[in-house]
Amino acid sequence: MKKRVFFAAVVGAAIMLSLLHTNSAGAIAHSQRVIVPAYTHPKPAGEPDPYWSTLNTLFKKDQGKTVPMAIINVNDGPGDKADPNYARQLADNTNNGIRNIAYIRTGNHTKPLTEVKAEITRWLSFYRNTISGIMLDEAVATQPDQIAYLKDIHDYIRKTYPYFVIIANPGGHISDAAAPYADIFVTSSTSAIRYLGADYTPATSVFETSDDTIERNFHIIYDATPSQYPAIIKKSRERNAGYVFITNAAMPAPFTTLPKEFDRAITLATAGSPNPKAYVLPGSLETSPKPAPAQPQQDTKPQQHNPQTSPASQNQTATATSISNQKPRAQELNHDQHKPNSDLAETGSNAIILAGAIITMIGIGLLLTACNAYRQRSRR
To answer: Could you tell me the pTM of the whole model?
Structure first.
């Protein structure tokens, strides 16, 4: 009988520990943040501008906590001259704690590196103190020469503007060999029907599957109905996306209007506990962006832009899966400023629950033993 009592106590304790582990895992499901591809030209001061007035209200209220970055696209790049409306808007964004990420189209790496660097220079010369990063669209990284192209730009930016955030958009899975050459990769850019479909190709690289790089993965999902938002958020978390943007707008221009029920999409994405292994981007996302350092003007000819080209161009072809087992670059991992206290609180809470479970099981075992002894005495 004593053996049965002891066995019951052990089984009960195991069940309690299992429930504790399950509840703990569910409690720390990582929250996400939202990066806004903002490809709509600001209107002159004094004119109604529903798009930017809505974003201004959001940015001012949020101060970069849940929506830390906006990708700015003038004309598939900086354009040929400074636009006073953009200058005003980018200054407003910066004052509201938003990092303005300057869009540059690489044309699947067909644009000469000298032109890419010249565009970076123009962005800084036009909007010097309000640019905090670069977005390299149509990035590819499956062959050594393609990775070398990305590395060249990365090294140039990191040396010249060390605090810049570098975002690369291949629109699909990347190899681990490419992972060191951007801070954030858009590892999925597709429609909701494909994103939620059974034929969605899962990632295999260490970069996209490791908990250590959650906040370096950015998923963009367009042509979604608001009713699909919860399912998309669930899938994006399962796929280790630390940043997400969902919109109901469809190709060819999904980023020129704000999503329906945008507030709800943000609330869904940001619900939950912060990622305990948050990747540290250059500078701090918890404070206002730092101004860009002054750079000497370069005598470069303005690039000719095709007015027919949509600023919302996206490369939907997923890159090949891992071509190397090289791990992503080692970076110090940290968390939001408030996280250490919440970690301690969670650890203390779990310890209390565990101690309570053990004491409860011991008590049950002793009670059953006492009952059994009482019954044995009664029989005598």
So the answer is: 0.71
